[in-house]
Amino acid sequence: MSDDSSAPARVASRVQGTVRIVGAGLLGSSVGHALRARGVDVVLADASPAQLRLAVDYGAGRLPADDDRPGLVVVAVPPDVIADVIQQELADHPDAVVTDVASVKLEPLRELRRRGADLTRYIGSHPLAGRERGGAISARADIFVGRPWVVCRDGETSAADLAVVEALALDLGATPIEMSPEEHDRAVALVSHVPQIVASLLAGRFVEAPDESLRLAGQGVRDTTRIAASAPELWTQILGANAAPVVDVLDRLADDLSAVSAALREPDAAGSRRAVADAIRRGNDGVDRLPGKHGQNRRFESVVVMVDDTPGQLGRLFGELGELDVNVEDLRLEHSPGAQFGLAEISVVPGAVRRAVDGLQARGWKIASTND
């Protein structure tokens, strides 16, 4: 008889019974993987038989059976069919709480109300998580860990049903946050939808740029345009469904861009340099407000270390920082084209900068820069 006492214990799930997930793409399959890791019975459904089979093969859940009686239905389909699928799932599973993970909340709710759907068992939600690549093949159980999960309740929502959706978020390692649909859509326009447009427009400038220019690209431009690799088909639907809040942010951003452009057209004119400096400083203030590690609004300092491009060097760096009692709060890696080393930008608390620099230099590491 084999001894499996060394196997990790499975953490009990807050979600009980069978969970049905409609839509076996990135988010739906990721939910399935995370729930199955907790021992939950997960049923998958998808309009595409090939997508469904792929998600099942990867272990995100099983195929539906005639006697399935889910207690929770998670709808993870594109925005243009979200209202249709929610209405159908409410009708097909009268004992289930139905939620969805769409990135727009108000328009689907309005459409369901226009149709006269009974929404007493429907609770809209949205995990602020994802990846640049979609599909079941890109799904991961941990993409929700530490991320906000917005839950949109209304006056008809029962406490018991709300608890089911919040339990789902907690099981997946996310942080439930209650918001109205209107609040949610305004918020994601600012922190998700407009950044997608800005990244895409900036990356679009690269299409006709000379190769010599692009060879100068560093980590800053890669960070700024990372999300530009997202799927155009999906984002056309998302932006169309949340058009009004997005346009409001874009109009104000356009005013800011026009003001900076006007200042730079005459950089020596009175007030021009101040206008540019104020724009950069306001960006500093905005970045300071973004929640950091563990949701804290906390400022870190950075230490940039030159790391040879050979196996084990990054692990050695982390190990020696641990010996110095320096906690790595964040990490960014930059590789220079043709160079045999990379730059590791380590974020640490301000009080640890000098200890990190002195200790690493004593161990032979080359420090490129610090911002202490």
Automatic annotation (TrEMBL):
GO molecular function, one term: prephenate dehydrogenase (NAD+) activity
Protein name from the UniProt record: Prephenate dehydrogenase
Pfam families: PDH_C, PDH_N
Pathway in which this enzyme or protein is active: Amino-acid biosynthesis
Top enzyme class: oxidoreductase
Family of this protein: Belongs to the prephenate/arogenate dehydrogenase family.
InterPro entries in the cross-refs: 6-PGluconate_DH-like_C_sf, ACT-like_dom_sf, NAD(P)-bd_dom_sf, PDH_C, PDH_N, Preph/Arog_dehydrog, Prephen_DH
Annotated gene: tyrA_2
Keywords: Amino-acid biosynthesis, Aromatic amino acid biosynthesis, Oxidoreductase
EC number(s) on file: 1.3.1.12
GO BP term, example: tyrosine biosynthetic process
Organism of origin: Microbacterium lemovicicum
Gene3D superfamilies found in the cross-reference section: 6-phosphogluconate dehydrogenase C-terminal like domain, NAD(P)-binding Rossmann-like Domain
UniProt superkingdom: Bacteria
Domain Prephenate/arogenate dehydrogenase: 17-294
